[in-house]
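Run log // design_07
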């Protein structure tokens, strides 16, 4: 039994270790120095959360339209994974604030929105797991995705940098490492989603 569990989690553990190592060797930046590496990780982590939550909503829409249990299961698994990454992105965000702003600025509107959706999403996923109605889960994931997208589109920022500061940096090396980090975090999200999906079929 323990060997089966080890084999199941080994790929995910390996990718997380590789993410940590890849972050450590990523290039420094002129003004932030080595602290920019936390920003890279923060950016990749939250982008992965958003993409996964969007995939959960779209899978939910497909499930509602086709009435396919297969799409409902994927929406459930992706929704749980997206929330896991969204919730864990908050401490990484706080770490980035501490290292680059020399303190926590929790009044940042974007951070407040993130915290609100983290609490709401956690309670939502817990409730959906208890109720265990596939169509309801798909519908809730779709609504959550739309609400999050609208909120992020309209939120103001104070200290938070503008969208895509890395891709506007003009530094090819930084952009290469950031793309690589995003691919690794997306791979981690896919592996987590597969674990949720496999558990749902048991």
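design_07 sequence
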């Amino acid at each position: 039994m323990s060997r089966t569990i080890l084999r199941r989690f080994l790929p995910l553990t390996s990718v997380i270790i590789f993410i940590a190592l890849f972050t450590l060797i990523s290039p420094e930046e002129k003004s932030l120095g080595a602290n920019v590496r936390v920003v890279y990780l923060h950016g990749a982590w939250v982008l992965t959360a958003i993409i996964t939550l969007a995939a959960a909503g779209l899978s939910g829409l497909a499930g509602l339209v086709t009435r396919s249990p297969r799409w409902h299961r994927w929406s459930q698994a992706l929704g749980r994974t997206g929330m896991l990454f969204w919730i864990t992105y908050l401490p990484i965000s706080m770490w980035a604030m501490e290292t680059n702003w020399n303190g926590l600025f929790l009044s940042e509107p974007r951070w407040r929105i993130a915290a609100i959706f983290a609490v709401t999403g956690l309670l939502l996923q817990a409730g959906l797991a208890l109720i265990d109605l596939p169509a309801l889960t798909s519908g809730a994931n779709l609504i959550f995705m739309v609400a999050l997208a609208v909120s992020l589109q309209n939120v103001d920022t104070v200290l938070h940098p503008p969208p895509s500061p890395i891709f506007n940096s003009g530094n090819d090396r930084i952009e290469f490492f950031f793309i690589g980090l995003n691919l690794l975090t997306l791979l981690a999200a896919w592996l987590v989603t597969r674990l949720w999906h496999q558990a749902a079929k048991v």
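The chain has a mean pLDDT of 86.
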